[in-house]
Design brief:
Shape: globular
Bound molecules: zinc ion
Oligomer: single chain
Distance between the termini: 94 Å
Number of helices: 15
Radius of gyration: 23 Å
Number of domains: 1
Helix content: 40-55%
Length: about 400
């Protein structure tokens, strides 16, 4: 038998760690002298994984203008939290214990947020990087910093609950949605990706929300809006840009791309590599493993999504286009909630697949059902037309 002198960990996929599924209620609150919508959360169960196809399916479907839809999403899949300034970590810790209130929540909450930013080596680096200015979205009083303040303010929640501002969730979701559109678009459609992304944003109910958070896109979006009628299904190439426009648009996307790629990377690797000079992958993993032992990485929906998106982009399977929404996908999402058992999550993530039968299909079960309902409606309309025509003929 072969006993290696040094135990070398086998190459392993990034670990998806469990996170909390909450039950939620909506509440109007006031912080920093402004009214805000807050979601009050209480721990309900534990999630161990997301169904395959979630990133290209349900995630892109959530209407971010509708708090009821967001709550339904959160109760099924968990809270979209930002990895920036350690929020994902603090949210999980608050589900365990959140007993502290403050007499001066605005000062203390802001201090906690900035301390966390400075304590996290990677977040601090990001805050200094001009290409990552989009992360300033989370610093907003209505976003992740405001969430800290709301948790310390008495009279909003019970001790066993935690607060997260609706705008905070919406901002993180906008990052997740745009990142998915952008990177799947680039992988599936190559140099037509920007046409595709702009078109998808234009026909999305979340257009205004995305435009507000990613203001660099405003002019490009106006251009697409003016150039063609709104199609239900975006066909890449229907909006063809000339070379000059292409260069201009890709410049608009440049910093967005850097920031969104950093967001994904931070969700997966919240801690810095301890020794950048170790180039060999296996050795680096061993060093990381020790480090992680001291400083465990917390699970979150955002981390699970980031890992799944990366695995989808890297997998050798071919891209399909959904017949309902026109978005590219590799695996159709069958299950419409997170896994609450580790075995089920593992089975889905690591099973042998074949996506050939999806060639002419749908990105998720919900879209197939939507098309079927439309067809049924058309058939019953046709039948009604026929019956009406018969009656007409009889009357004549
Ligand atoms: Zn679809």
């Amino acid at each position: 038998m072969n006993h290696p002198a040094i135990k070398v960990p086998a190459p392993m996929a990034a670990e998806i760690r469990p996170w909390t599924l909450p039950s939620c209620r909506e509440k109007n609150i006031e912080i920093f002298g402004m009214e805000r919508i807050a979601i009050i959360c209480k721990s309900h169960s534990t999630a161990y994984g997301i169904p395959s196809g979630f990133s290209t399916g349900t995630l892109l479907d959530v209407d971010l203008n509708d708090s009821k839809r967001i709550i339904q999403f959160v109760e099924r899949y968990g809270l979209p939290t930002t990895p920036y300034a350690g929020q994902s970590e603090r949210v999980e810790q608050r589900f365990v214990s959140n007993e502290i209130f403050s007499d001066n929540p605005e000062d203390m909450g802001s201090r906690i947020w900035y301390d966390a930013l400075n304590e996290s080596e990677r977040s601090y680096e990001i805050s200094l990087n001009q290409d990552c200015a989009l992360f300033n979205n989370f610093k907003d009083r209505g976003c992740s910093k405001g969430t800290e303040v709301a948790n310390l303010t008495e009279g909003i929640r019970y001790k066993k609950e935690q607060v997260i501002l609706l705008d905070d969730l919406v901002t993180t979701m906008a990052f997740m949605q745009l990142a998915t559109l952008l990177f799947t678009g680039k992988a599936a459609y190559g140099d037509r990706a920007y046409d595709y992304v702009l078109h998808q944003v234009c026909i999305s109910q979340n257009k205004e929300i995305i435009e507000n958070r990613f203001s660099q896109l405003r002019m490009s979006l106006q251009m697409v809006d003016a150039s063609e009628p709104q199609l239900a299904v975006a066909k890449p190439g229907t909006f063809e840009m000339d070379e000059g426009t292409k260069i201009w648009v890709s410049n608009q996307f440049k910093t967005i791309e850097v920031a969104l790629a950093t967001f994904i990377d931070l969700a997966i690797n919240p801690q810095p590599e301890p020794h950048a000079f170790i180039q060999e992958q296996t050795l680096r993993r061993m060093v990381n493993r020790n480090l992680n032992g001291q400083n465990p990485i917390h699970g979150s929906l955002t981390r699970a999504w980031a890992i799944q998106l990366l695995e989808t982009l890297e997998s050798h399977f071919s891209w399909n286009t959904c017949r309902e929404c026109g978005r590219p996908y590799k695996f159709r999402q069958q299950r419409m909630r997170a896994y609450v058992k580790q075995e089920d999550a593992n089975e889905d993530r690591f099973k042998d697949r074949n996506n050939a039968r999806d060639k002419n299909g749908y990105c998720c079960k919900a879209h197939e059902q939507r098309i079927r309902r439309k067809k049924d409606k058309r058939i019953s309309n046709d039948q009604m037309d026929k019956a009406a025509r018969k009656m007409d003929e009889r009357d004549q």
